[in-house]
Amino acid sequence: MRILVTGGLGYIGAHTVVALIEQNFDVVVVDDLSNTSLSALDGIEKITGVKPDFFEVDLRNQSDVNSFFESQAQIDGVIHFAASKAVGESVTNPFLYYHNNIGGILNLLSGLQKFPNAKFIFSSSCTVYGQADELPITESAPIKPAMSPYGNTKQIGEEILSDMAKADQIQAIALRYFNPIGAHESAEIGELPLGVPQNLVPFITQTAAGLRNQLSVFGADYPTPDGTCIRDYIYVVDLAEAHVVALQRLLSGKNQSNLEIFNLGTGKGSSVLEVINAFEAVSGKKLPYQIVARREGDVTAAYADTQHANQVLGWKAKNDLTHAIATAWKWEQKIRGI
């Protein structure tokens, strides 16, 4: 089975490529290298002993996408990660997000018409729920008006797949993840954002490594126990394995509809300050941080109800916050030579 992974050298993508190879899938990777580097390809090979086929393609360029598909004799499934992914950046640069995230999936689906039976896994997000009325968040929670362009692109992506599924044009699973953190235990791949990190844990590890002067905590006046935002932090390797399980579900015809949706999280929420405290406990380092104003687009709290994923998909997160943060710090130490 040949599986296309778009954004396959990115953070979650690279870990999923490893998980696919470990399950003996033949993997082809497409990435535009806008937020990663070819070192991820080397890391995948070091872990698995396999170097997957790689094509540098910008999904916004339809002719390049078409050329890629013309070069392929077979594609049995697609896992679509390639997208811009930072809430804050999307608020300040919305066009980039619509162009990349919506233009990309449309061009991909257009090129994929060559392989009409290919199964499709969509990298969605808990941001589609906005600030949910009830916690934990189930898959039946209402989709709220997006609080950021990033969140809106995930909603629109799901809507495109939903309409295609209703027209019997695709069989797909949308995976709504919460907050992936950590790195592969080998420290051969991990989160390596280009420029200033947009996510909490790499900003924490870079601050501890001396690359950043201090961490900014966006708001301490939220209606939460310690005043900071609460998120469901899921270990990236657990998350990667969920993609393989979802793909196998589609390939074996076990899906109950043309579009299924699953939340991927641990079911436990942790505040920003709890994550900082967990890092300090793991690393033995005191982290300099300051409380600053809230960041536009952030919700107060979000954590998953995992029953649907546990019982129907047959997947469950195995690792806790401490383990995930320990692997993130191990990765940071390795790449910085600490």
From TrEMBL:
The lineage of its organism: Bacteria, Pseudomonadati, Bacteroidota, Flavobacteriia, Flavobacteriales. Homodimer. GO terms for cellular component: cytosol. GO terms for molecular function: UDP-glucose 4-epimerase activity. It comes from the Bacteria. Keywords: Carbohydrate metabolism, Isomerase, NAD. Pathway: Carbohydrate metabolism; galactose metabolism. One of its GO terms (biological process) is galactose metabolic process. InterPro entries: NAD(P)-bd_dom (IPR016040), NAD(P)-bd_dom_sf (IPR036291), UDP_G4E (IPR005886). Its cofactor is NAD(+). The keyword Phosphoprotein does not apply. Coiled coil: none annotated. Residues 4-325 form the NAD(P)-binding domain. The keyword rRNA processing does not apply. This is UDP-glucose 4-epimerase.
